[in-house]
Write a structure and sequence with these properties.
By secondary structure, the protein is mostly helical. It has 2 domains: 82 residues, Tetratricopeptide repeat domain (Serine Threonine Protein Phosphatase 5, Tetratricopeptide repeat), CATH 1.25.40; 71 residues, Serine Threonine Protein Phosphatase 5, Tetratricopeptide repeat (Alpha Horseshoe), CATH 1.25.40. 75% of the residues lie in helices and 0% in strands. It has 12 helices and no strands. Helix 1 packs antiparallel against helix 2, helix 6 packs antiparallel against helix 7 and helix 8 packs antiparallel against helix 9. The longest helix is centred in the N-terminal third of the chain and has 18 residues. The chain is elongated, with a radius of gyration of 21 Å.
Length: 196
């Protein structure tokens, strides 16, 4: 490893140590210094972008992810992280398009489910969560219940809700909310007429 590469690696390690110690200002300074070096490998820009996105700075993260991808267009993790940053920025369709290229990646599937759900594409959101299979978190499963409810597939939604409540009793209220909530916060006409 040459002198510049050694220095960049040391800066990155110091940045990670600062981040883990909670010194975010120092971590950012070190990550940026490493990523800005003329001979920095694409992974260095990626590392800085991940830090920025975790700190809620999606626009800045997108800049560094694009920089990484210009040098390494096949950098899978940078492509996925880019899709997640686009969700953070509210660019949902573009995020979904980006993330759907990775149907075997749990983070990408999770991102697809969120983007498609926010766009009102309930079927695509449900398919993405179902693609997670056993890796689906409670939050993912609640999103699935909501998507199935929006689709009018109430038997499936109720079965998924019952299974989640059986595993996580503390989520009973969340499951009930997911089963009754509709887009724009209204009950469907069928349900509201049944209430009369």
């Amino acid at each position: 490893m040459g002198g510049a590469a050694t220095k960049i690696a040391a800066l990155t390690q110091d940045a990670l140590a600062a981040y883990q110690a909670g010194d975010l200002e120092r971590a950012e300074t070190l990550f940026k210094k490493a990523a800005s070096a003329p001979s920095a490998p694409p992974q260095t820009a990626y590392n800085f972008a991940v830090f920025l996105r975790r700190e809620g700075r999606g626009k800045d993260a997108l800049y560094w992810l694009d920089r990484c991808l210009r040098s390494a267009p096949d950098h899978r993790n940078a492509q996925i992280e880019r899709g997640l940053a686009l969700i953070d920025l509210g660019q949902l369709q573009q995020a979904g398009d980006c993330l759907q290229a990775f149907p075997d990646d749990p983070d990408a599937l999770r991102g697809v489910s969120v983007a498609m759900f926010k766009l009102g594409y309930w079927e695509k959101a449900a398919e993405a969560v179902q693609g997670l299979a056993v890796q689906a978190s409670a939050e993912d499963r609640l999103l699935l219940i909501r998507a199935l409810t929006e689709l009018g597939r109430l038997d499936e939604a109720e079965a998924a809700g019952a299974a989640l409540k059986a595993e996580r009793a503390e989520l009973r209220a969340d499951v009930s909310k997911a089963l009754t909530r509709r887009s724009k916060g209204r009950f469907s006409l069928i349900e509201s007429s049944a209430l009369v």
